[in-house]
Design a protein that fits this description.
By secondary structure, this protein is of the alpha/beta class. It is 48% helix and 22% strand. Strand 1 (10-15), helix 1 and strand 2 form a beta-alpha-beta unit. This is Response regulator receiver domain-containing protein.
């Protein structure tokens, strides 16, 4: 992570039942300038607690989770944390899954196999926009 106090990082929380996938995603996303991986979970309850405790800006989640589903997590996040950006990154990428995720609050939906680079590019864009907003707000306070 490459940030400074004047350039706050976008805080990303990862939710996937496979630790190997979480480690890969954390390494890849965490290497993006302006991104900080603030937590990980493998099941919806721990994810909700962790997302709230870390004040995550972005949640990247799979649909298949231990003890629940990503759809349930999306629904809970939409009800309780409307400002968090939700990104589904999954192998369950059929049309039905995509539509169900969007209907339950997902802002982004990517196939792990074929769209991982696109997901990385999206995180990078979000981090850049987050930094730009931070600079805008810093400038506004000094006017």
């Amino acid at each position: 992570m490459n940030t400074s106090p004047s350039h706050p990082a976008v805080r990303v929380f990862l939710v996937d039942d496979a630790i190997s996938i979480r480690k890969r995603v954390a390494a890849r996303f965490g290497a993006i300038e302006g991104v900080e991986i603030v937590g990980e979970a493998e099941e919806p309850g721990a994810a909700l607690d962790g997302i709230g405790a870390t004040a995550a800006d972005v949640v990247v989640m799979d649909l298949h989770l231990s003890g629940g589903s990503g759809i349930d997590l999306l629904r809970n996040l939409a009800q309780s944390m409307s400002t968090v950006i939700t990104i589904v990154l999954t192998n369950h990428s059929g049309t039905w899954f995509r539509q169900a995720c969007v209907a339950n609050g997902a802002q982004y939906f990517f196939d792990k196999t074929s769209e991982f680079d696109l997901a990385c590019n999206t995180i990078e864009r979000i981090a850049h926009e987050h930094c730009a907003r931070g600079l805008y707000h810093l400038g506004a306070h000094h006017v």
